[in-house]
Structure formats: C-alpha cells, structure tokens
Queue: 4 jobs
Job 1
Amino acid sequence: MPSPLLTLQKLSVNYGGIQALQAIDLDINAGEIVTLIGANGAGKTTTLRAISRIINIRDGCILYNGQNITRQPAHKIVKLGIAHSPEGRRILARQTVLDNLQLGAYTRFDRLGIKADIEQQFLTFPRLAERRHQLAGTLSGGEQQMLAIARALMSRPKLLLLDEPSLGLAPAIVREIFGIMQTLHTTGVTILLVEQNATLALQYADRGYVLEAGHITLSGAASDLLNDDQVKKAYLG
C-alpha cells in the first residue's frame, strides 16, 4: 500500500499561552478529498496554516511525499507542491485579476507554462476571463473566491488546502465553487477542505476528521460521518 501524500504526527500548535492544536494525527492519500469539520475555534484553519508553514509548530511532525517538511519555510512548501487558498480569500485588491494569477506562480520560471496555466484558469473560471484586467477588489465575493482558488492553482500543486470556500456566498455560487472543486479533484489534485457547512463538505469528501478544541475526536469515511448521530447532533443541524 502506498504511503499517504500528507501525514501529520502528534502536531501541536500554540498561540501565546493557548494550545490551539494538541497532538493531532491525520493522513491524506493522493487523489482524496479530505475535510476537517468542527465548531469555530476548533483548530481547523490553524491546521491548514501549520501545514503551509504560515505559523510555527510547537511539537510534532509533518511528512509530505515521504519528506519531513516540519521546519521548511512557506515558499519552499509551495515549491514542493502544496498551495493554500486561505480563509477570507486574501486576494490582492489593488492588482488586476491577471496580476493575481501571475503572482500565484511566483515560485515558477517557465514563462510559457505560466501563460498556458493562466489560460487554463480562464477556461476553468470563465468569469475571471471576462474580468482579467479588472481590479480584484472590485469583483463580487464569489468571483474573489474563484480568483483565490485559481491563484493557488497557478503553482501547480499536488495538494490544495482550501479554507472556507463557501463563506459569505449565495447558495448558487457555493454550488458552482464546489462543482469546480470536484472537477479539480478529477484532474488529480488532492484536497484538504475546511468548510463551515459540514453537510456540504461531507457530501463532497471521501473522508473526514472532526476537530474539537484542538483534538481530533472522530474520523472516518465521509458517508459514515454524515450518518453518525454524534456528528448529526453537533454539526449537521
């Protein structure tokens, strides 16, 4: 059996005196969509930030493709094949759509490949193609979310960390975003998804982990978690 693409071993993170993650273990196999669900403040976003090395790790280990990346700087994480579409989108509002996409490829030097990938993003996200010269800050919320995902994809990741893609969006736009996510999955991109809408996340995911106060309390096939009484009561409404 092949090794997981990503493994977290006893990962712990502190914010000041607060322990945000407490010795969590997690595996993601190549080609999967895995989701983290839990209440606000459970540690979901912290987990993604720790993987992408935006924040410091107190204890534990991160293995990616068999390599220990626990102490690697963030830009090297991107070069290795991990991209992060952050909560709140964090697009560059005063730059154009095209500028944002070009900046997403900042670790690359293959100009022709970058140009081809920009056109691929415009095929995947036709609304962005229509607005390629528009300032990103003037886009709608849904368009900004599409841009955040497209920008992350410009580094050609093997693993996409996707944080709260539905946040603040109308249901029709959410369905469109998740349809695009599913299409990306069929092209071979592995996805670790953090999503406030636990029902939606579990409907699209292969497996899930439940985080509570920095601990993983439950894990399993997404279909099993959808039908778990404890999960239903706490997160599915």
Job 2
Amino acid sequence: MTRDRFAQIGLDRLVRLDWLEKVSTIALSGLPVKDIRTILLEDLRPAFRSDRTDVRGSLDKTVTILMKVWVTPPSELDSLWKDGLELLRLLPKSEHLSVHWGMVTAVYTFWLSVGAQVGRLLKLQGAAVATQVQRRLREQYGERETVSRRTRYVLRSYLDWGVLQETGTKGIYAARTALAVDDSRLIAWLAEASLHARANGSVPLKDLIDSPSFFPFRIKPIQADNLLKASPNLDVIRHGLDEDLVILKR
C-alpha cells in the first residue's frame, strides 16, 4: 500500500457529482484510458470556458482527479475499483452517490478526513462551521493555508452533492436527510473503501458503520458474519469480549 497516500491532500479542485457519474459511465464502456481522457476534456470544457490560462489548467487538473477515481486508481485499490464499477452498473442511480463517496474516500483520504470532522460537528452541534472544520484539519495536516483552501473545495463539493446545505449564515452548513443504505453488498463495499482510507486498515465494526465520515448515510447495522459473506476482501477478528475488529485481507 502506498503510504504517501495517507499524508497527501490531493483534492485541489471542486469535484462535482455529475462529473463522477459521467466518468464512471464512460469507464464502464471499456474505452481506452487515452480516449476517456479526451472525451472528458471535451465534454467538461464548457464548464471551464475562459480566456484565463489558469482556468484551462483547472480543467486539466479536474480531469486528472476524476480519472484517478474511476479510471486509473492506485494499484492497491484495483479490486475495490472493479467492484465499485460493478455496483454502479447494478444499483439504481439513486444509490450511486454512496458508491462515488466510497471511491473518492479510498483514493483521496483527505475526503474522509473532512467528512469525519463535518460529521462530528453535525452530531455535536447540529451544524458544521467551515472555520471549525478548517482548524481541525490544520491540526491534523499542518498549519498551512493549503489545508484551509482545499478543505473549502471539499465542503463546496459536499454542497454540490447535496449532502450539506447552506444555512442563513455564511460558512455554516446543515445536514440534509441521510440516505438509507440497506444493501449488504454496498455496506460491505463501503466498509472496505473506508478501511482503504485508514493507515492501519482496521477498525471496530460498530465504529466503522457509525463513522462520522459516513454522515450523509443511514447505514443499516450488519452482523460480522453477514459482512464477510458480502465481501471476500474483509476479515473479522474478535477483539475483547464483544468487539469485532474489521480488517482488510492482505
């Protein structure tokens, strides 16, 4: 596993949900990587049309992010990626958001970090204040303006995805209605995606399902045995008297 992936931020652009839906649909068609990139550059160009040269750079960087999620992910995520594409093929579009969330989480672990802080604040005070989220992320990643700026990109992405909504006060966000996740295959896949975003690759089952990083979802409780049946890539170790530790198989 690439250890640098857990320290890198990577997300330096707004990631729109419909763009991820587009790239995953093209990826499912089986086109060569070069052709997929060409299509994305052409299709997304109108959203970046400007005389400014930095906007053209933004288009290229955005396409690179999208490609890394659904076309050329890190090699250690190969199985997760293939299973994720299969879920997108099988599941109704109304459930695609959770799959995109899981894949972005695994590829860009900063997405999980921001989600965890947002989820904690929503649970504690019913709202997520952007400055509080940024401060907590700077404590984790270092006191850099880059951290604050890229946290803003992720928060804007959450708004675009519809998992957060603006309140009457600038920079303060509220949660939308949580999306139900009941399919055991999807639950197991999301668990695997979350574990790929954690440096130690393990977490207690209850903490995994109830993770604040999954704040947009209402995940149905699942027994350890059923989790294992749904995914060949997970294992469970009994930890203490009544705690199941979920780990990634190596």
Job 3
Amino acid sequence: MSASKSNSSGQPVMIEAVGLCKYYGRFAAIDGVSFSMRQGEVVAFLGPNGAGKSTTMKLLTGYLAPSAGVARIAGHDMATDRLAGAARLGYLPENGPLYPDMTPRALLEFFADARGMTGRRKRDRIDAVVEQCDLGAVIGKPISKLSKGYRQRVGMAQVLLHEPDVLILDEPTAGLDPNQIHEVRNTIRRLAAEKTILLSTHILQEVEAMAARVLFINEGRLVYDGSTKDLIADGRGLDEHFRQLTGHADAART
C-alpha cells in the first residue's frame, strides 16, 4: 500500500489534484485545477451547472483520464495505479445506477462478491452498512419500489461497503425532500469523523452545516479555495459569494 504524503498539519493528504486539465478538442472542460485534502476533511465543491465539477470528480476517481496533470487518491496516481487508489475510494455519482429488480441486500451481496469479500467478512460488512444507512425496513424490497431517499441510501451503502478512506459524493441530496436531505446530512456528519469527504452540492445551506472548507469552480478553473468561515466573515451569505465568484456560466460543460 502506497503511503500518501502529509501536509503541515501532520495528517496525510488523501485527495490531490495537480494541474488537472481535460480537453475535448479546443474546448477545456477543466483547466489547471489544483488542490489537496487531508485526512478527516470535509470539503464542499461548488460551482454553477456545467462549471467542471463532475469532470473534476471523474478525473479524481479515475473514471476519466486527464489531458494533463495528476489526480491522486491516498498517494496513488489514478491514471497509472487506479486499482490501488480505487480500493481506498468510495464514489457516489449523481443519480448513480442501481439495479431496480434487485433488493438492497441482493445488490450489496453482488458488490461484495465483486470486491472479493467472502464468509464472515462479507456478512459483517453488509450488516454494518445496512445499519449505518438505516436500510433495515426495506432490505428485502425491490429497489424499483423504493423512494428516491431510500435509493440514495442504498447507493451510499454500496459506496461504504469496502470501508474506503476517501468519499467523493456528487450531488448526494439532488432531488430529495427536506426530510431526506436531513437524513443524508446526518449520515455524512457521522462519516466525517473518520473519512475524507469531497462533496458536490447546490444546496448552500448544507455547505455551512457540513463543510469547514469550500472550493469554487467556474468555467473550468478553480476561483476560490478557503475556509467557509472566512468566506462569509464579511456578513454576506454564501449565495451572494457564489454569484460573485462564479457569475453566470453560459458555456455548457460536463
């Protein structure tokens, strides 16, 4: 297992983007994005639709290859050492695919098998994530019959199954009602005690509730990286800073 480097706080750096670029012909989906996150940090990743958030997350997870730059998870280069990095990573994409005819238990068993879990380890991990994500009431129901809130919990349980050190969550509360958002927020708060979490969201109230640090991206470039508290110290809300830092992105990005 590769050791990730440490920052000045002594905590290891678990997520690192160094000059990340992704080009489609002459179009730059992201251009020179750099930041790092230490163990135990929860960081909100903000920007208007099409600003480059999802592209950055896909590069960090190894789903896309960068045109330039390096993405590292727990010290592993996700372009050259993706399997080792993926073993330390849990990724929940926006509207992540689930198998609607399966039950949550069958889905978790499928992913446990895919990750090579067997015997007691497999049983214990499934039981743990079912409890962690409060799926007991629906564990035997077809996923197609579940509410969006429960489907999101199933996705989160699958992400947590192999006990990753790093979580990358792309719009985990998209389309949920206020009660469901509250439940997801509580789950993320519990996980924050031991995980490094990069969280993309459009719900600015959630940022202040969960993240001590915020990254703003606009038109493929990082335009702010700093403390949430420092950002709003002037008395203006996050929504006003959002508009100031990002403006209105007219170009379509992914």
Job 4
Amino acid sequence: MKLLRFLLFPFSILYCVITSIRNYLFDVGILKSTSFNIPVIAVGNLSVGGTGKTPQIEYLIRLLEKDYKVAVLSRGYKRKTNGFQIVNNNHSAEDVGDEPLQFFKKFKNITVAVDADRVNGINQLLKTENPPNIVLLDDAFQHRKVKAKTYILLTKYNDLYINDFVFPTGNLRESRKGAKRADIVIVTKCPNNLSLKEQETITKKLNIKNNKKVFFTTIEYDETLRGKKDLLINESKEKKVVLVTGIANPKPLLQYLTTKEIDFEHLKYPDHHNFSVSDLDFIKQTFNKIETTNKIILTTEKDYMRLENKIDSLCYISIKTKFLEKEVVFMSEIKNYISG
C-alpha cells in the first residue's frame, strides 16, 4: 500500500496544483463566496475522515443551543435523496445520512438539514417558519462557496496535517497551506495525560500565524451503553460482545474496550457503510454462533443510526469531546466570533 501511494506521487502533485488554483481563485474573488447576515461556523479538516467532526459539532450544539436558534447543515454523505431536506421523524439514515440523523435524534431543540449545495441550504433554512440565527456547517472546511464567520480546523494528535501530504500519496484534501484559513485549530483524540510541554511542542510545530488559538481535546466515552435497554459498561464485562463498526478509525474504541476488559469480536466495515442484507446476515450469524445467552451486539452511535430496528440485542456507545485545557477560553472565543 505504501509503495502504491509512493508511485502515485505525480498525481498528488497534480491534485495539489488543482486545489491550490481553486483556493487562489476564491482568495482573490474570481470565484465567489457567499456571506450571510447570521453567524456561520464551519467545522472540518484537511485530512480524509476520522478527526472527530461529529463530537465537535455536538459540543458546539450543547454550547449554543440555550442561547441561539441553532441549525446544523450537512451534505448528508452517502444519502439516497437529493437536494435540500430538513431532517424529520420519517427519515432514515439512508435518506439523510447517519450523522445528520444522529444530530436530529439527540438534540430536539435544533434544526438539522442536508444539502450538498451549502449556499442553497442556508438560504432555505432562512426561509423556514422558525429560521435559525446561527448555522453550524458540518465537514465544510473546503466548501469555499460559503464564507463562514468562523472556521474550526480539526487535526488528529497521531496524524497531524503538518506531517501529511495530499491525496493519493497522503490523506490531505488540499495543501497544508489551507490551514491558514482556520480561525481555531483543535488537535483531537489526544491522550488524556498529554503534558503542557508536549502541547506547546505541537503548537510550535503547527506554526499557526496571527495569534490564532490552538486547543487540545480527547474523546470521552459514555459509561452507559444505550439501546432498547441501557447497560453500564462495567456490566458488559460479563457478556460476550460482537463489536460492529463502520467508522474511519475504530482503534481508539478498540483500545477503550480493551482497557475495560470487554471480551469482544470485531466486525470492521468501511466508514459510513451501508449495511447490505448479506452484511446483516453475517452479523447475526456471528452473534448466533456464540454459545451463551449472555451476549450483545455493540456498535458506534453513528452506525446505530443505520442498524437500529435491523438487528436485535443491539446497543451503542456514544462519545463526547473533552478539552484538556483552556475550555473556557474556547467557549469565549466562539461567543466572541458570534457576537463580533
């Protein structure tokens, strides 16, 4: 795989040139960006998948929903519908995407919508009977047609964009120079015990200009497994677990379950996987082969959106973003951007 990526290096150079030209055209105004009269916060990354956008969006929802009419707008990755859709109780993950459905089910006081055309999506939201006064754009760092008020760039602790290269040799969607558009950079999925000294070292390495803020977060797992019946994580030590994941990077979850001494068998699928009938049959067969009744099927919250009502004995584990330091500073920065 590494050899193949090396051989594709000329295509990476071409891809880098194309994306750089596109960004330049937006920067000088030849390609137009649309601004709006309400604050728009764009959350995204330079890398392909797995940086923790979903828990970061959820963090922002919790931070803002009491004081603002919040809308989340996503493209609805891998959905089977087209155009603008406001997520409602009749939608499935296949209709609107797993992450938008997760936001909708989890937060009852916000509006969740999908549209690949983010400009049209925001305009449609503003035409609704109860329009938002703030919009969170999910996975929209490269969506230059919207001029956001604030850009939050996420990069993984063990896969910093500064160490990567553009696709297909690396995993970057554009050149590292794209980070200059960020107002805030968050290093995600850090170890809980990451020292201040190492945080300072990483901050210097990222070389963020103009006094822009860098924050460090980790993932915090819920101690309760949710589903048709809730179960404390420690209670699952006594059970046989079939773990089903369709996420970009399941390693942190595997490590967490291992530290909790959970006995699990892992069935791994690609990110945002649409589970077929044969996939579901295989999962059920794997589960049925376990020679005990004391067993469960565990999945991620995102995958639960796709698997709910399709598999019995299913539960999920949810995650939250947790700031290692300076959470109050981050909250203040966001509110200053909104009010400024």
